[in-house]
Design a protein that fits this description.
The protein has about 350 residues and is mostly helical. The chain has a single domain, classed as Formate dehydrogenase/DMSO reductase domain (Formate dehydrogenase/DMSO reductase fold, Up-down Bundle). It is built from 15 helices and no strands. Helix 3 packs across helix 14 and helix 13 runs antiparallel to helix 14. The longest helix is centred in the last third of the chain and has 30 residues. It is globular and about 70 Å long.
Length: about 350
């Protein structure tokens, strides 16, 4: 007995294609049934109206994993930039960026393991390296980035005199902080962008259509949320050094501008395929999220620079807005993409280049 479409779907992985067939049933009236089946399949664009691909099972764990990984990547990269090109006035950025990245990376594997269902699946991924698999490379990139982030945080603690006199502090004090930061930033940017590449590597219409734009979008969002997290930490702890905060504001303006540009390019390039993201239940979250989490903070930063001053409260509020916008961006992209996978017409429009 031939498998049903539901049985076929259950055996496929996320984003894989199901067969489209119009083979008629045997027996009397098979020719008439074949004609009817052909017309129905062509009208629906799939086999009995079933989606040609199986959507990913990803839930909130992956959304939060993308979000925290982006913050860690952006904060660590900006800390390295401040360390290499800044001076003593920018040291608060370096310390905050290092300290923010580590806890975010410690939580990320927990979320990834929870999504996989069983811890051993995560460890099985470390047994091999698949150069053509974004998931495999992302796992190794996350592991490498976590190692550099941990060493950088320990080195910062030693530089501040934590555990002074003990051999662990003396050993940590000898670590090459600048060298660690530069090497770790490579993996930071990789982790910040690979999540977008991971989405685009599937055949989900909304993601596949923008395969060359999702990676840069996620990197821009990582830098904006990383800058917001550092600004929030400095403002909340009373470290109101104008030079450091002004540098962060400039970095945030550049990141938000590029992020909005890439999002606009995605909307134009995707055309009708972007409908699940821009309209319906996810559009009612995505559009306000862009306004409150990107457009408004960008305008507030530009206005503050023009005036030459920002209040601590204003910095805290705009930073929270950017962080909320980064979370909404990832949540809506993931769930709207899953909705687009359930639309046979969207899949065939994407595969036919419409």
């Amino acid at each position: 007995m031939d498998p049903t479409p539901q049985q076929i779907a259950a055996t496929q992985g996320p984003g894989t294609t199901l067969p489209v067939t119009d083979r008629p049933a045997s027996g009397p009236g098979a020719g008439r049934d074949a004609a009817l089946t052909t017309v129905t399949s062509q009208a629906r664009g799939s086999y009995y109206g079933i989606a040609p691909i199986k959507k990913p099972h990803w839930q909130w764990e992956i959304v939060l994993y993308f979000f925290l990984g982006g913050i860690a990547a952006g904060a660590y990269t900006l800390a390295t930039i401040a360390e290499v090109f800044g001076d003593r006035r920018h040291r608060p950025i370096v310390r905050a960026g290092r300290y923010i990245a580590l806890p975010c990376l410690l939580i990320s594997p927990v979320l990834l393991i929870k999504d996989l269902g069983m811890p051993r699946r995560f460890f099985h991924m470390l047994r091999i390296v698949k150069l053509k698999s974004p998931m495999s490379l992302g796992t190794w990139g996350l592991l490498a980035f976590s190692g550099f982030a941990g060493l950088s945080a320990v080195a910062e603690l030693a530089a501040q005199g934590f555990g002074r006199g003990g051999w662990p502090a003396r050993l940590a004090g000898r670590l090459p902080r600048r060298g660690l930061g530069r090497a770790g930033s490579f993996f930071a940017l990789f982790v910040g962008g690979y999540t977008g590449v991971l989405l685009s590597a599937t055949t989900v219409p909304l993601w596949a259509k923008n395969k060359y734009l999702l990676g840069p979008t996620f990197i821009s969002s990582a830098l904006s949320t990383g800058a917001a997290a550092i600004t929030l930490a400095l403002a909340a702890t009373g470290q109101d050094d104008d030079a450091a905060l002004h540098a962060l504001e400039e970095a945030e303006i550049l990141a938000l501008t590029s992020e909005l540009g890439f999002l606009a390019a995605q909307g134009v390039h995707a055309g009708p395929l972007a409908r699940p993201l821009l309209t319906g239940k996810y559009g009612t979250i995505f559009v306000p999220g862009v306004v409150l989490g990107m457009v408004w903070p960008l305008l507030a930063q530009l206005h503050g620079i023009r005036r030459g001053r920002r209040t601590r409260r204003g910095r805290i509020v705009t930073s929270l807005g950017v962080l909320l916008g980064g979370l909404i961006l990832r949540w809506t992209l993931v769930y709207a993409g899953k909705d687009s996978a359930d639309d046979p017409a969207a899949y065939f429009a994407q595969t036919r280049g419409e």
